Amino acid sequence: MKQSDIDKHANKPRSEIRRTSNALTNPAEIKVLLKDGAYGVLATAHDGQPYATPVNYVYLEEDHALYFHGAHIGRTRANIALNPNVCFNVSEMAALVPRERSSNFGVDYRSVTVFGLAEKVTDADKHLAVLLALMIKYFPEHIPGEDYPIPEPEELSRTAVYRIVIEEWSGKYAEHSSTAT
């Protein structure tokens, strides 16, 4: 790869994708993917060292933010404290598409990458609301207050809740024809 190509792609705006024909641009579709995604991958960095970790999360459209829970201390927490700039990816794979030649194999997918600032949630009411929203997302058949008690403050203090305020996002998709070429 030529240096000019490297510079061209490395200096693009963070939410610009290379193949604009594969851009997922409808905000409603992006929101559905964020709401329905099984999990996401959080990327942080400190001192030039990237760190990515899969996390359960919930997207709250009214806040235009993603939330996840985790430890009060650890690498993720430290990285966010030192550099709150993060990105978060949610992807779903639909189908593997074999072809006659391996160079033409494909994967049908949709993905969204969110860019924003992460912060620890300190408001007790929001902390509880997010943890309940996570329970409802991942265990919708269990009703808070009926199938399990609402967490007490002591239980809540065991885990931290983090918010990613969404500044930008970019979505991509690929749909390959099922016929071999």
Total strands: 8
Query: What quaternary form is this?
Result: single chain
Q: Name the structural class.
A: alpha+beta
Overall, the morphology is: globular
The top level CATH class name: Mainly Beta
From the 3D structure, determine the CATH topology. Answer: Pnp Oxidase, Chain A
Number of domains: 1
CATH architecture type:
Roll
Write down the overall mean pLDDT. Answer: 88
Question: How would you sum up the major sheet?
Answer: 8 strands, antiparallel
The CATH H-level superfamily is Electron Transport, Fmn-binding Protein, Chain A
Query: Which regions are unreliable across 5 or more consecutive residues at pLDDT < 50?
Result: none
Task: List the total number of helices.
Answer: 5
Q: What helical percentage do the residues reach?
A: 10-25%
Radius of gyration over all CA atoms, rounded = 19 Å
Distance between the termini: 28 Å
SSE order in H/E notation? HEHEEEEHEEHHE
Strand content bin = 35-45%
